[in-house]
Amino acid sequence: MSLVYRPARADDAAPATAIFAAAVNDLSARHGLAAPPLRPLPPNPFFAFCLRDQPEGFWVAEDGGDVIGFALSRVLGEMWFLAFLFVAPGHQGRGIGRELLSRAAAHGGPAITNRALITFAYNPSSISLYLKHGMYPRESIYWMAGPSHGAPPARPARAAVDYERLPADQAALAVLAPIDRAVLGFARDGVHAYLLNAPGAACYLCLRDGCPIGYAYAWTNGRVGPLAAIDGSQVRAVMDGALSLAAGGGSRQISTVVPGANADAVSLALERGLRLTFPYVLMSEKPFGHWDRYLCHSPGLM
After folding, report:
1. Is the pTM of this model over 0.85?
2. What is the CA radius of gyration of the chain?
3. How does pLDDT run across 202-226, given as a tens digit for each residue?
4. Which of 44, 68, 104, 133 is the 20 to 30 A CA-CA neighbour of 149?
5. Measured distance CA(117)–CA(28) in Å, rounded
């Protein structure tokens, strides 16, 4: 049957979630990774959020009425970021990903000055596709995880950071925007609007001697991130307490997504007993951001 490419609808969140789970599980199996399989339910709430917030960046491919692939991009100021591009196993190798990417890449129009994404470092077909579209490897990204009991209490008071929980409102977005501009080069109110309201999330403004030095999200599932420090010398202190906050949420495991350029963060993660689970690579048309001051939430949300 002929392929159809169309903008996504609200009822596409469920099949997109299923395709994402199936594609990642298939990729893990083919590369011999002993990762817990992803489940296709419930539908990823970020997909529904993007359909409300930036629907023009969400495309699907259909074959015989069945959704078999999707692409989801976000526009962050002058930055275009590809959050997801997945094709169902059994339909890969037909040029579907290439066609979805070309449609998603139009999101933002001529105002876009840079394009970026984070993808699996062990998936050469995807990396080759992005290379052909002018996006080149810039940073290694490591998903790291370990037991929560490996996160000891925060360091002594003389090195302590104060953590002030931010409410999920416009005032919080106004606080976070200048930190993101200083660290990443752009604000991203939409992403924070989603994360601040996500179940299990707590976003903290990090202060030393009453002055903001960054922010950190700590999740009840043990995740830390995104996290940003205005000054690179503050990364370890900001991350230190954030790991303890995440470990105190009741989860047996803590995890974070660390750029390889952030040597202090990688070092602290290893000290806390975290180990590499998935390697990724950040690709972009042009370099951007200070990755030695940042920890991601996930590849899709950066």
Report:
1. yes
2. 19
3. 999 999 999 999 999 999 999 999 9
4. 44
5. 20
Instruction: Indicate the residue type of 117.
Output: L
Please, which residues have CB within 8 angstroms of residue 119's CB and are 6 or more apart in sequence? 126, 127, 130, 280, 281, 283, 299
Find all residues with CB under 8 Å of 39, minimum gap 6, and list them.
Answer: 21
pLDDT in tens, 110-164: 999 999 999 999 999 999 999 999 999 999 999 999 999 866 655 544 458 999 9
| CA torsion through residues 24, 30, 36, 37, sign | positive
Q: Measure the CA dihedral 167/171/173/175, to 10°.
A: -100
Q: Can you give the chain as a three-state secondary structure string? A: CCEEEEECCHHHHHHHHHHHHHHHHHHHHHCCCCCCCCCCCCCCHHHHHHHHHCHHHEEEEEECCEEEEEEEEEEECCEEEEEEEEECCCCCCCCHHHHHHHHHCCCCHHHCCEEEEEEECCCHHHHHHHHHCCCEEEEEEEEEEEEHHHCCCCCCHHHCCEEEECCCCHHHHHHHHHHHHHHCCCCCHHHHHHHHCCCCEEEEEEEECCEEEEEEEEECCCEEEEEEECCHHHHHHHHHHHHHHHHCCCCCEEEEEEECCCHHHHHHHHHCCCEEEEEEEEEECCCCCCHHHEEECCCCCC
Contact call for residues 273 and 147 (beta carbons, < 8 A): yes
Q: Give the pLDDT of residue 18.
A: 96
Q: What is the dihedral of CA 120, 125, 129, 134, to 10 degrees?
A: 60
Residue type, 29: A
Amino acid symbol at 176: L
